[in-house]
Design a protein that fits this description.
This protein is an alpha/beta fold and 656 residues long. The protein folds into three domains: 317 residues, Glycosidases (TIM Barrel); 192 residues, Class I glutamine amidotransferase (GATase) domain (Rossmann fold), CATH 3.40.50; 47 residues, Sandwich (Immunoglobulin-like). The protein is built from 17 helices and 26 strands. It is globular. The structure holds beta-D-galactopyranose. The site of beta-D-galactopyranose has 10 residues, from loops.
Length: 656
């Protein structure tokens, strides 16, 4: 990413607004209420296509004109959707070939949203036609602050298996491999008689009778991410040709969507924007929020970013949709800000009365303004105003965690040592363990420059390139500290096993060698000699140059090393070969002895300005050493900051 271009100064408050669902008298009430709530930035026209082009070639912009003028008159900036996220019914009826096809070869029909094939030339032509018109009409409007391309590209339609996609996949493969023999080698097609002699025989990995070729599956993931990125580029190019306003799209850095490799998308954004919803299917949804915010900051190259969507209360798409208790939405929002967000936006402004999302919370609930939810929004708005001077500062972190979408795709292949071992579980556990120690972590790509970090954590990095593995080893040789967890370094980019013993790519730096994996059945436990327990995974490990920190006390691997430490050059590398409490290893590796599990402590800085965020997720007051001025309460802090249970503090620190 070049330089970050935030749409609105300060820490902005924003929302998605779907005026198509309401009458003009409601628009006027909404604009007045938005002003009352201090809303600075409103996303419109996200699902606008069927209103703007009700029948082919018939365009109606009057309603959108009126809404934009109304918001402008209220001093609100516009985050303008290109309107292409969901095609109107006429497009799907006239061009059924634009509909996506699932892996089993069945069509996904309209009636929901995003029912389009990312490779469809017909869809692209019609969508770009609309984008050009929207850009021509509003590109120089004084209220326009941000272009919002489509919406959550790939949320539902990332993987399409239709014939058009198959052709596009073949084109992508030809440009990646040039020669069919190179593809055969990369995909290991000698196995199960899969050798290709002609490009035209290659299909997308549709459902098969048995396990599919894992390398083909990974290339299909890569292709699908690139294909949608190509689509984003096409829209962005049109917008940039007609307007100087920054362009972005909303990412889904979240636990349940994984189809886009955002490391390759991020450089194309003028500002990184993410949608985040607390996921109550996870063990610790708030810890995941912190992780997602750190990863979003990683995508933003450490610079400020936007929280483009979050929920004021409950969502409607989880099996059990838990609402937020008073204070929780504010804590969630401040966690995002602490970790680098300079904009806090919601889906959506006014709760829908109809449609599939009528049970989704909003800033303005069905019950109106005499509600806890509305008062929370006003309180958040006031808080964001008070801490506005934080905008533009950057998060201080000297520990990095490596994250890779490619590794996620490949580690969770159809046939693997244990279905119970998942990439995100490893990543979340490592991140949460650091967070519990009060350590702020940058989440970065495997090819990131690691030199400034005092510790690099590599959870379950199953797939890693030679170059990245070498850079990680060099970082340690030069004095760095590294913690690697099990099922790392196993394959190269072709999903080919690194022979000679696991964890292939990291054997030398870790000074260990494993002969075989020995996953445990779910629910089984082994005792470790350090008093902890191990679950899910063990391996027949021996040390080559490492020393042993803990062994298994029982089970099939009794006496075998479970945790090791290796001196490599001037640095130290730990290996954790089972799922276990990592706090002791991380304490040793970071030198941090405290335990802050219920409190988040993060610092943002720029030049000689420093802001300390303390977010108390517990119910009891907590104390933290600080000196300065708490922007939230307006009180000065003289040595010890007390944050009430459930409270937040942002201290402008005195730097001596
Ligand atoms: C997002 C989407 C919004 C809304 C929201 C509900 O995926 O961008 O349009 O559907 O989820 O949580």
């Amino acid at each position: 990413m070049k330089s970050v271009r935030m749409p609105v100064p300060g820490i902005s408050l924003g929302c998605d607004y779907n005026p198509e669902q309401w009458s003009p008298d409601v628009w006027r009430e909404d604009a007045a209420l938005m002003r009352r709530a201090g809303v600075d930035l409103v996303a419109v026209n996200i699902f606008g296509w069927s209103n703007l082009e009700p029948s082919p070639g018939e365009y109606r912009f009057d309603d959108l004109d009126e809404v934009i003028e109304l918001l402008h008159a209220h001093g609100i900036k516009i985050n303008l959707g290109t309107g292409t996220s969901s095609p109107p019914p006429w497009l799907s009826s006239r061009h059924p070939e634009t509909l996506p096809v699932a892996a089993d070869g069945t069509t996904r029909f309209p009636g929901g949203r995003q029912a389009w094939c990312p490779s469809s030339p017909v869809f692209r032509e019609r969508a770009l036609d609309l984008v050009g018109r929207v850009a021509d009409r509003y590109g120089s409007h004084p209220a326009l602050a941000l272009w919002h391309v489509s919406n959550e590209l790939g949320c539902h339609n990332a993987l399409c298996y239709c014939e058009t996609s198959a052709d596009a996949f073949r084109t992508w493969l030809r440009s990646r491999y040039r020669k069919i023999e190179t593809l055969n080698e990369a995909w290991g097609t000698s196995f199960w008689s899969q050798r290709y002699s002609d490009w035209s025989d290659i299909q997308p990995p549709r459902l098969a009778l048995s396990l599919r070729n894992p390398a083909q599956l990974i290339d299909f993931q890569r292709f699908s991410s690139d294909e949608l990125l190509g689509y984003y580029r096409a829209e962005a190019a049109l917008l940039r040709a007609r307007s100087d306003v920054p362009v972005t799209t909303n990412f889904m850095v979240t636990a349940h969507i994984r189809n886009l490799d955002y490391w390759s998308w991020a450089p194309e954004m003028d500002v990184i924007a993410n949608d985040h919803y607390l996921d109550h299917r996870l063990g610790d949804p708030v810890a995941e929020l912190s992780f997602a915010a750190d990863l979003t900051r990683g995508l933003a190259g450490g610079r400020p970013w936007m929280l483009m969507e979050q929920a004021a209360g409950a969502v409607n798409w989880q099996p059990h949709n838990v609402t937020k208790v008073p204070g929780e939405m504010i804590r969630n929002s401040l966690t995002h800000v602490a970790r680098g967000a300079d904009s806090v936006c919601f889906f959506q402004w006014r709760a829908s009365a109809q449609g599939a999302e009528k049970f989704h919370s909003a800033m303005l609930p069905h019950a109106g303004t005499d509600t806890v939810a509305w008062r929370e929004v006003l309180k958040l708005s006031e808080t964001l105003d008070r801490i506005g001077e934080v905008a533009g500062t950057e998060v201080e972190a000297d520990v990095a965690l490596l994250f890779s979408w490619e590794s996620w795709w490949s580690a969770e292949g159809e046939a693997r040592p244990s279905q119970a071992v998942t990439y995100l579980d490893q990543v979340h556990s490592a991140h949460a363990a650091l967070r519990d120690l009060g350590v702020t972590t940058d989440v970065v790509a495997p090819d990131a420059d690691l030199s400034r970090y005092r510790l690099v954590v590599v959870p379950g990095l199953y797939m890693v390139s030679d170059t990245d593995a070498q850079a990680i080893a060099d970082y340690v040789s030069a004095g760095g500290r590294l913690v690697v967890t099990y099922f790392s370094g196993i394959v190269d980019e072709r999903d080919r096993i690194r022979l000679g013993g696991y964890p292939g790519a990291f054997r030398d730096v870790l000074g260990v060698l494993a002969e075989e994996f020995a996953p445990l059945l779910p629910g089984a436990e082994v005792a470790l000699s350090n008093g902890a327990i191990g679950t899910l995974w063990t391996e027949r490990l021996r040390t080559t140059t490492a020393s042993v920190i803990a062994t298994y006390e029982n089970g099939p691997m009794a006496g075998i090393p479970a945790i090791t430490r290796n001196q490599h050059g001037d640095g130290t590398a730990w290996y954790v070969a089972t799922k276990t409490d990592m706090s002791d290893v991380l304490r040793e590796a970071t030198g941090v002895m405290s335990d802050k599990s219920d409190t988040e402590v993060v610092r943002r800085r720029a030049g000689d300005r420093s802001y300390l965020f303390v977010i108390n997720h517990g119910t009891e007051p907590v104390e933290h050493p600080a000196r300065g001025h708490d922007l939230v309460t307006g009180e000065s802090v003289d040595g010890v900051l007390t944050v009430q249970g459930g409270g937040v503090a942002v201290v402008r620190e005195e730097i001596r």
